[in-house]
Amino acid sequence: MTISDQDSTQTLTALVTGATSGIGREVALQLAELGWRVIAVGRDREALTQLDEASALITSRAADLLADDLAALVPESVDALVHAAGISPSTRVEDTADEDWERVFALNVTAGASLARHALPALRRSRGTVVFVNSGAGTAARPRNAPYAASKHALRALANGLRAEEEASGVRVTTVYPGPTDTPMFGGDVDRSELIRPSSVARAVVMAITASEDVQLTDIHVRPRRELSW
Ligand SMILES: NC(=O)c1ccc[n+]([C@@H]2O[C@H](COP(=O)([O-])OP(=O)(O)OC[C@H]3O[C@@H](n4cnc5c(N)ncnc54)[C@H](OP(=O)(O)O)[C@@H]3O)[C@@H](O)[C@H]2O)c1
């Protein structure tokens, strides 16, 4: 269902991970601004309290996606799932231990797949939308980011596979690939005023969720107005 199709008496619901910071936080705030009910997930208690205070439509849920019961996060009715939580270790392959590989895949990929699996019955009922926040690293790899890039390549495959599987059910699946964005995650040595604003990436996520009923936006690349090298 799109905003334009929305029955004014019906409140749409989004489950947003990574909602305590950066891109996910902006997605939560923008959706609430549009009248969506938002379940905002993260670990940072102070940031969660700020979200609760920011809008009556936001309900925060404290959860560690690497440890807690993900099925319990999914409400009965869901119209959009946004998996924005992620970690980005900056290590060379020769220095990356097995458990570090496992952690980055567990959060960036498996948690998104698990939440999608638990939300699918509700998403099928609502003909809803799943958005995976990927990265430029989803299509390329650089030195010191192989674990991150490998996880984001896997996340792209997850999105493509899920989209193909859910074609008949009407669930839409979108990958958003942000370039360097001004959040705590980005530690590159650049003039930060040239980075993408997290609110701009969030607008792309919201565009995917609110796209016209007859389409799905499959892949959205969000690049800085002027390309950066760092
Ligand atoms: N910033 C960039 O340049 C950039 C570029 C391309 C793609 N991305 C992608 O954009 C997404 C959002 O990143 P961001 O830049 O907004 O980063 P951020 O500001 O560092 O936010 C990361 C989010 O992930 C959550 N998170 C981390 N570990 C978690 C865990 N174990 N359980 C639950 N939540 C956890 C954090 O919440 P808590 O700490 O509260 O748990 C936080 O809300 C990520 O998928 C990232 O890969 C970012």
TrEMBL record:
One of its GO terms (molecular function) is oxidoreductase activity. Residues 12-183 form the Ketoreductase domain. The keyword Oxidoreductase applies. Keywords: Oxidoreductase. Coiled coil: none annotated. It comes from the Bacteria. InterPro entries: KR_dom, NAD(P)-bd_dom_sf, Sc_DH/Rdtase_CS, SDR_fam. One of its GO terms (cellular component) is membrane. Belongs to the short-chain dehydrogenases/reductases (SDR) family. PANTHER family: DEHYDROGENASE/REDUCTASE SDR FAMILY MEMBER 7B (PTHR44196), DEHYDROGENASE_REDUCTASE SDR FAMILY MEMBER 7B (PTHR44196:SF1). This is SDR family NAD(P)-dependent oxidoreductase. It comes from Candidatus Brachybacterium intestinipullorum.
